[in-house]
Amino acid sequence: MFYLENEVKRHAEPLLNEMLSESPIVVLEGARQVGKSTLARSVASEREALELTLDNPEVADFAAHDPLGFLRQAGERLLVVDEAQREPSLVLAMKQLVDEDRTPGRFLVTGSADFLKTRGASDSLAGRAEILSLEPLSIGELHERDTPEDWVNWVVNGAPGDLESFTPERTREAILAGGYPVPLQRQTIRARNRWFESYVREVSSRDAAELSAGEFVVALGRMLKMLGSSGQTEMVYSKFARQVGVSEGSARRYLGLAEQMYLISELPAWGLGLNSRAVRKPKMALLDTGLAAYFSGMTAEKTRMVGGQEYFRALAEQFVVAELRKQRTWSEERFNLFHYRNRNDEIDIVIELFDGRLVVVEVKAGLSVQPKAWHTISTLIPDDRVAARVIVYLGEQFQRRSNNTYLMPISSLWTHPAL
């Protein structure tokens, strides 16, 4: 069972330090309990800083009644404001102070809701703030990898070198565990489930109520459970609304709220230049596979059973997308993630690099790969833009089938050598 004994260094920390050296405001955003405050404290400990949280009622009252005075109290030190989305008036106050003095590293604000969706924030902070989205822990971070894993960069450079050993069973455990730091510090499934239960109750009541004036609280928990029981799934809003028991318009608003709270992620459909048979629906999933496994009651034993195997396939796809999304924060390659499906076949993940090249990825949750998978990945998207075609699976074998076509373990995402 995956277990986190010590606090680990985040791969995003050098990037956060770089942002603070260049920008007067840095916004560190992400879901509640993914480690934003810990990372902010680590960065603040290396410089003179004043750290405050709006979770403290007295601090929040000061910020609400005198936002300029609140922001000026750090003087020339870095001011770290945790849960900054709780006081929208800080946005305009920061704008005023930064327009007076654009010295880098003045403010580091964190939030478990999208701070820049606060009224007026996007326009007010344009050109003044940089944003870093923090995801749950990557497997490379959990295993304290010295060099941040960068799978896309490794693959497009020919996948050189040997993989570190990582058994299929450990990969299965990694998928089910997810990357939230606190539950990973608990040594039993029961203890982890208690944490997730409390977490869902907190975000569905307190956080959701603050952002929506109580409108979404009742159905949000049902919606999260429905998504958690589906893995990475194509979103048909009318069907989803019926399953949750709300109107389609309400379902879309609930999903928007969950996305603002960083609880879900969207994988858009890719279709540039392809024929009209392409289906353009996004895939939706919970941010973290550990949270999804909690909602579905999935365990390692159940993944081997009839019914559980099908769900585990969807969960494995969700896991690979999540790990790639984490690596995008620090990768040497700039890329976006998509999926592709026409009426007959689909590609799980299409990685589009900023220079237009593609890496096409199929995810298999078994110890072997059927011939049809090779046909799909080799023919569905034309060769002219494809830099690599990869099937990742639960097994351990690495196989180079041609110059740019590979069979790799899912664990290659974090066991590949550094370039």
TrEMBL record:
Ranges for domain DUF4143: 206-366
Family annotation (Pfam families): AAA_14 (PF13173), DUF4143 (PF13635)
Residue ranges occupied by any AAA domain in the UniProt entry: 23-142
Name this protein carries in UniProt: AAA+ superfamily ATPase
Taxonomic source organism: Arcanobacterium wilhelmae
Lineage of the organism: Bacteria, Bacillati, Actinomycetota, Actinomycetes, Actinomycetales
